[in-house]
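Hi there, hope your week has been kind to you so far. Do you reckon you could talk me through the fold, stretch by stretch? Thanks so much in advance, here it is.
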Amino acid sequence: MNSPPSRLESDEMQAVLSAALRQVHGSDARLERWIAQPFLKRGKRRTARYDLDARSDGEPRVSHYQWVGKFYERNDDARKVATVLRELAGIDCGASGGFVVPSVLACSAPNGLLLLTYESGDTITKAILRDGPGVLAAIGRALAALHAAPVTPDGITSPAAVFGEVRPCIADLCVRFPAKAAVLRRLLIRLESQTPAATATLSFLHGDLGPSQLLWQHGRVVFLDFDKCTRGDPALDLGNLLTQLHRLTLRKPGKLPDFTSLRRAILDAYQRWSSHDPGLAERVAWYEQVVLMRKIHALEFDRTRHPEAEAIRQRQAEAVRLLEQLGPLVESAEPGLSNARTLKLR
């Protein structure tokens, strides 16, 4: 079966939790009480935190555990993420690179359910605001170590494939915003002409890296949500992260340091801890622009993530604000990315 049920009944869930508890803590471990607290629903994939009280034979005290359960539409996806997390746990790049990933407790593939340890910590934005230089340096170092991990999930994401995804996005935006169509078409031509060549060496990539996939835990970076992990150009992860951080500095001024210094600190640390890559800065700049266009498209057209009317209005207003920046930026952009220039959204 490749399409598991979208949810489990209470008694089925208790059986799965009990089996996982015995697997992790011994055959005499008994589940005495559990509570589910849903905290994410995106499309058909749901995520919940489980608070468990358990007791083992001969132990007078009840032990308390916090787990995360992720339900996948396809059980193959649950297996893929479980395999990746187990491989990351089996190598020392987490210790040497200063990062943490959730541990796999159980994978109930027939139910599309992956049970993981619950990793607590500060949001990465709060940590940056408190100790910007140290946290930004740690992010660069941790990401370099993650990309160096000898993990090879199925699937490759090439620059051409990324550009192929953004082309229809720009076409949609041209129709929705005809006054911006000329600027958007010029940007499309420039992005196509500057599409990086496929890299000879493929790196392990998170695939969907942003502030919400990062936590700060006792001086270490926690990477979450490897659902879109792939292999490809490390500049893709960096471009994703930097674009998301840039949007945040625009939406909430003062929540983060100046983006120019923030960007430089992450890239400097990344390059210090990674193999020499002379073309990295130019490729990161290209991915930032491509990711930005995908984000503008999602803000304008996506109705699934935040379906409330006010949330849709706010997202569309942000899309318009970002589009308003494109005109003078595209007009003044110099040919090429030799100076690693990005679209400065200010």
